[in-house]
Each structure stands twice: as structure tokens, then as C-alpha cells.
Amino acid sequence: MNIIETRDLHFQYPDGTKALNGINFMAKKGEMIALLGPNGAGKSTLFLHFNGILKPTKGEVLIKGKPIKYNSKDLIEVRKTVGIVFQNPDDQLFAPTVKQDVAFGPLNLGLSEDEVERRVKEALKAVGMEGFGDKPPHHLSGGQKKRVAIAGILAMEPEVIVLDEPTAGLDPLGASQIMKLLYDLNRKGMTIIISTHDVDLVPIYADKVYVMSKGQIIKGGTPKEVFEDVETIRKANLRLPRVAHLVEILRDKDKLPIEMGFTIGEVRRNLKKYLQETHE
Ligand SMILES: Nc1ncnc2c1ncn2[C@@H]1O[C@H](COP(=O)(O)OP(=O)(O)OP(=O)(O)O)[C@@H](O)[C@H]1O
Hints:
The radius of gyration is 20 Å and the shape is globular. It is of the alpha/beta class. Helix content is 41%, strand content 22%.
């Protein structure tokens, strides 16, 4: 069963902007999905439908097979299942201290103080922000705010975590730490959906990739299936992972028949294979 599904989803903003034009999106339990697309493609708008913050103009959103009903009781249940980390952490952080911010969601779930404390501690540790609990969020750097925003959602222990550009604004080490954390959570069974412009990270972590352009999904599949369709990738103002671009150049310009790959590991294997074959 799909844990999140949209059927023929359309959305128009009050000013008339048609941001989504017939989206059929599917996330199965336990998948790690990356949504790619240029600025303004509709990624954030789609995400805001996943926990009922926005209501479709047409079409429907199903959580665990049930259409969202948009009454407050139903929305509480939906938000227990699906947690969203917004693109801009300033939209998410508002409490006087980091600790209070991360505790806000769990407290609203009516959990005991001990349980809230445990979750806050664990979530801050997971994002590498233990020791920052007493700081006001507005004194943190952009990347630190992002981590705290992620901790706030982790502390809710949702079944699905949706992150709008989780690595944007993070330094390279911070970005790989966050991706590694999401990967570990995914291995433990959590469904993870991210939007990103970081095409180098996608083939390493994602099971499934969707490409959006102008409010539509123009391609979906495994990273291999998606990145092999170079025409669609370039049409959506995206690029190949750099390591794949290198293979493309070696094949096209240098006429070396190296098998395509999308991660450093894959390309390394393919290069070694090629070198072994030519030296036999
Ligand atoms: N509140 C709003 N009112 C009107 N139009 C909006 C609003 N928010 C977004 N839009 C428009 O909807 C379209 C989709 O925007 P959205 O933010 O979903 O794109 P995105 O793919 O997340 O882009 P980015 O990669 O830049 O974050 C754009 O044309 C945008 O200008």
C-alpha cells in the first residue's frame, strides 16, 4: 500500500498561479524518495499537500489509502503520520530556546514530561545539536537552524518525514551528515521524501526519483532510469551527477567505451572493469 498517494492533484494559488497540474505521486512505506525540479516547479506546493496544509483545487491526497478529509480531527491524525520540515527553518522555529522548540510537537501529542525529554535529547543528538538546547534559535547559524528544525520533526516520531531541500545552506560535511542521518532513519523503516537540487547525492541515497517541471511530474523511476534520460534531465534545468558527466565526456569526446554510472562507487567499478579488459 502507498503511505502517501496523490491522484490527479491540481492546485491554484489565490492569485491565479497554477502550481500543480495533475500530479500522481506515490510513496510506499519504507521508501526514500527524491523530488527534483527547477525553481518554481511546484515541489514545495506538492509537499504542503502531504499533511493537509494546502487543500487541492482538484484531485485528492491519500494517506495510508484514506483520502484526507480536512477536518481538524483528521488533520491531527495525518500530521502524526506525516511530518514536514520546511525549506526555510525560520518558518518552523519560534520558541525561546532550542529545547522548547523541539519539545513543542511532542508536548502537543500529550506525552509525559519524561518521554518528551527523552525525545528532545535523542532528536538533538541525532542532528548533532546536543549542547545547543538552551540557545535561542535566532542566535543559531542557518545550517544549525535547519538541524534544529529537523530535530523538531524527528521528535514527533512520524512514519513519514518530508524535507524541503534538507541540505540547502549546509556546509558539505553538514549536508552529508544530514543525508546519512536520513539514510539511517530510512534503514530503520521510516519513509523519507526530500526535494533537492543536489543531484550528486540523489543516486547515493534515493530508491526512487521524481522529476517535476511546471507543476507536472515529467519522469519517475529509479535513479538509473531517471538519469539515463539525459534529455528530460536537461529539459528540467537539471544536470547529471558530476561523476556521470565525466563518464559522458570520456565516452563521447574520448571514445572510451566505459559503462555509465551515477555514483563514485559505480563509476570506479566500471572504470576498473574497462581497464582490466583493455590490459588483458
Ligand atoms: N503563496 C503563493 N502565492 C502565489 N503563488 C505562489 C505561492 N507560493 C508559490 N507560488 C508559485 O507557485 C509555483 C510553484 O512554487 P513552489 O514554491 O512550489 O516551487 P518549488 O519547486 O518548490 O521551487 P524552489 O526550487 O524554488 O523552492 C511558482 O510559480 C511560485 O511562484
